[in-house]
Design a protein that fits this description.
3 strands, 3-stranded mixed β-sheet, globular, Zincin-like, 3 helices, alpha+beta
């Protein structure tokens, strides 16, 4: 699966989870997940390349409870590898 296909899967997952995806000019800041007036949103810098967007989706979605949500295997793998990388950073530096 290409990064572009993976990004499309992440965007479809966000839609299924009722998370609005917004691409705005964040002046080089990558963006992330937030809740604004009760609406869940991914706000991403419109200048980000596809790979960076995939990384942000994986990182932010790894923080949400997704056990009861069907995920395409490659999406689940990406989220899990992101979670494992974060855990290694924490234990290596802790």
């Amino acid at each position: 699966m290409t990064d572009t296909q993976l990004l499309q899967e992440f965007e479809a997952l966000a839609h299924r989870l009722e998370i609005q995806v917004c691409h705005v000019d964040l002046e080089g800041r990558p963006g992330g997940f937030c809740v604004i007036r009760g609406e869940r949103r991914f706000i991403l810098d419109r200048g980000l390349d596809v790979k960076s967007q995939v990384e942000i989706f994986a990182k932010e979605l790894s923080r949400l409870p997704l056990d009861d949500v069907y995920l395409v295997p490659r999406v689940r793998d990406k989220i899990e590898s992101t979670t494992e990388s974060s855990a290694r950073l924490f234990t290596d530096n802790g």
